[in-house]
Every structure is written in C-alpha cells, then in structure tokens.
Amino acid sequence: MAKFKGGMGNMGNMQQMMKQAQKMQADMKKMQEGLELREVEATAGGGVVKVIATGAKKIKSIEISKEAVDPDDVEMLQDLVLAAVNEAIRLAEEMVSGEMNKITGGLDLGGII
Length: 113
What we know:
Structural class: alpha+beta
CATH superfamily of the domain at 42-105: Nucleoid-associated protein YbaB-like domain
Oligomer: single chain
Largest sheet: 3 strands, antiparallel
CATH topology of the domain at 42-105: Ybab, Chain: A
CATH architecture of the domain at 42-105: 2-Layer Sandwich
CATH class of the domain at 42-105: Alpha Beta
Strand order of the largest sheet: 1-2-3
Radius of gyration: 23 Å
Shape: rod-shaped
Strand content: 15-25%
Order of helices and strands: HEEEH
Distance between the termini: 48 Å
C-alpha cells in the first residue's frame, strides 16, 4: 500500500495556486479599470497634430493646429493624423504591457488583455 507524504500532498499547492490566480485576476481587473482613466499623448509633424488616447486604447481627442491645414496638401494632414494616432495606440499598448508585467511578473498570458 502506497503512503502519501505531507497529508494532502499536492492539494495544498493547488489551493495556493488557485488563490494566487484569483488574486492576479482581481489585480488585472483593477488595473484595467485604472488604465481607462490614464492617458498617453502622441504628436506628429513637430507637434502640429496631437492625439490623446486612453489606456483602453480609445482615442480621446485629436488636435490639429492651423499650420497643419493646407487645402492644397490634404494628404500630408491625413498622414500626420494617421502617424499620431498609430503612435498613441503604440504608447497605450506599451503602458498596458508595463502594468501587466507588474502584476504577472513577466509571465506571458497569451495576450488576454
């Protein structure tokens, strides 16, 4: 007949892992809520186009200075807006990634956020 060491064996480890997973899940939810309030700012064209995005990767505002508006070169303005929006999203993703690393200790969770 086999004997088990330590009474419950791996059951205690499993319970501890479940508690850690639940705490991580609660921390991630709290972080997500907080990131919705945090903002990043990106500019293009030397600051003539400014985009503000939230940590939830939503564009909050786009500001375009009068100097950027040239009716004969609409494509340039479109490119500046596109560049600023893409940079704002990249910065928001970077911020989210940094916050996730604080919670998970760098553990790759397969992009669940």
